[in-house]
Amino acid sequence: MSTKRQTLEGTTIADPPPPDLAVMRETTQIVLGGDSGPHPLLRDDEVATLTEALLGHLELLLPQAEQAAARLPRNSVTRSGAMHCVAEARGKLRAPELGFAALAGSVTYARRLARVLVALCEHYEIVSAGVEETPEQRAFVRLAEHCLRCPTCRTVDDRGWNARLFCEEERRLYGEYRRACARAAATRRVSRGRCVEASA
After folding, report:
1. Rounded to two decimals, what is the model's pTM?
2. Which among 30, 105, 158, 170 is least buried, having the fewest CB atoms inside 10 angstroms?
3. Where are the domains of the chain?
């Protein structure tokens, strides 16, 4: 893949190197800990160092994630999700200057940055690969479209609440959605493990 591109003026500039997602995820793990269990206890100096690292990671990844998402069609589900995550990440970066000055330097702020960085890494992996819709998103859309059209699923009781009548097709589609989500989660765990091994 070429690492250079032409500007409108005709000059050639180098594209930024791809983000090191393994290093970014390692940083988030230090702040958030594992998938289960309490958050790790961090000293004040560790919080300051990790917060600075997280801010740097986000500032590097944000424009690349936004550019990768912008290459996808406007009606792409993955593009929309990535753009929402980019906006949320920018909000986290600006939190201290938007009246939340007490957050700056706190472990709470570091954890918020870490969580949005985890999400942004996942979105970047998807949109940078040109994926317009993931399998779990397709499964969810099929489920939602069925529920919107199905008379049984749309039945309401005397209070106007959904009657929650049994629908075999809805149950089947929901099962497909759950299985797609489980496969996606397993794939992400394997991918993260490989990234950590590669960076070791």
Report:
1. 0.68
2. 158
3. 1-133, 134-200
